Amino acid sequence: MAMKVKEVSELASISVRTLHHYDEIGLLVPDEITAAGYRMYSDANLERLQQILFFKELGFSLKEIKNIIDDPTFSAEEALHMHKLILVEKRQRLDQMIATIDKTVLHLRGEIKMTAKEQFQGFDFSHNPYEKEARERWGDQAVNEANQKLQQQPANKQKELAKQMNDIFARLAALRHTAPDSEAAQAEIKQWYMYLNQIGNYTPAAFKGLGQMYVEDERFTRNIDQFGEGLAQFMCQAMAVFADRNE
């Protein structure tokens, strides 16, 4: 049964405005437009929307998603299988972390004795093998390209960029106890977005995905939080707000 845009919006928990935007850029064009101008979405449209949202969760830009899904070689079944592997791996890691928390509570009460290794089980955020495979299969290489471009800069330019980065991080650290969607936080996170695009090519979606890495990858979290505890989480949230507003 065909569904109106508002019904699809409520079903998928995305805004009507977002669906209109997807239509305008050719990412998700409803199969039918009524005489009264209402967009009507078919079952095939909903299947495509599901894929769009899965790929967005991985941090792909809308342009990249369109290219992937419109590719004649694209297999929805293959993509769903990959999405499932990624989510199952994340679930297993979260289950391990929950178990570690429960054991730590008992350890603090003196009911059990945990080894140092046991205290950190589930905290390996260094990689998700299936997400890496998805990246290699469908290709968002923004971080690697940015690193390569930075290394190609002259030494004095690298020094200047390093100072800019430190200054931005210091200013963000001073704001980390404010609301991520505040005017001040968004003004500063915009500076971070502009900085990154000096050395790379970050779409808002890729920027949001990078922010997620700040909290999912312990190495990012540890380095960023040197500027102030909780900065990585604050930046992740602020970057998500910025990306959603500028998509």
From TrEMBL:
Keywords: Activator, DNA-binding, Transcription, Transcription regulation. This is MerR family transcriptional regulator. SMART domains: HTH_MERR. InterPro entries: DNA-bd_dom_put_sf, MerR-type_HTH_dom, MerR_fam, TipA-like_antibiotic-bd, TipAS_dom. Residues 2-71 form the HTH merR-type domain. The keyword Transcription applies. SUPFAM superfamilies: Antibiotic binding domain of TipA-like multidrug resistance regulators (SSF89082), Putative DNA-binding domain (SSF46955). The gene is tipA. It comes from the Bacteria. It holds the Pfam family MerR_1.
